[in-house]
């Protein structure tokens, strides 16, 4: 809900919903007003209920990272299984390669999850649409 419109500074009070549950920003959990942008130049006034989201560029980068990094690490783990097995005097069969791929996938996915959750939100969230107009 929009609580303040001072010049170019728009502040909203978060209303918790399902999308907020998976978001790492934590604004809805704090329950304090925070700044957002209005790139679509929607007509806003105090009391309007809006839908916000992170900028599309950030969503795209996180999406690519969450797909490419685990895939790349899994492929690298497949090829690294032979030299690693040789270091321990083992022979790299299909089973060891499969385990190394799964370990590479799990560790890299966990790494991406931790990094994307802990990095600071560099851009302000954007107002996506007006859900409910305020009563005049």
Account of the 3D structure:
The protein is an alpha+beta fold. Helix content is 48%, strand content 18%. The protein has a 3-stranded antiparallel sheet, with no helix packed on it. A hairpin with a 2-residue loop joins β1 and β2 (9-12). α3 (56-87) runs antiparallel to α4 (94-118). The chain is rod-shaped. The chain starts with a strand and ends with a strand. 12% of the residues are buried.
Could you describe the largest sheet, including whether it forms a barrel?
3 strands, antiparallel
Q: CA-to-CA gap between the ends?
A: 15 Å
Shape: rod-shaped
Helical element count? 4
**Strand line-up in the sheet with most strands:** 1-2-3
Share of residues in helices: 40-55%
How would you classify the helix and strand content by structural class?
alpha+beta
Percent of sequence in beta strands: 15-25%
Unreliable spans are: none
User: How large is the radius of gyration?
Assistant: 22 Å
Number of strands: 5
Query: What is the residue-mean pLDDT, rounded to a whole number?
Result: 82
Short descriptors:
alpha+beta; two-stranded antiparallel ribbon; 4 helices
How does the SSE layout of this entry go?
Blueprint: E1 2-6, E2 9-12, H1 18-21, H2 27-30, E3 34-36, E4 49-53, H3 56-87, H4 94-118, E5 126-132
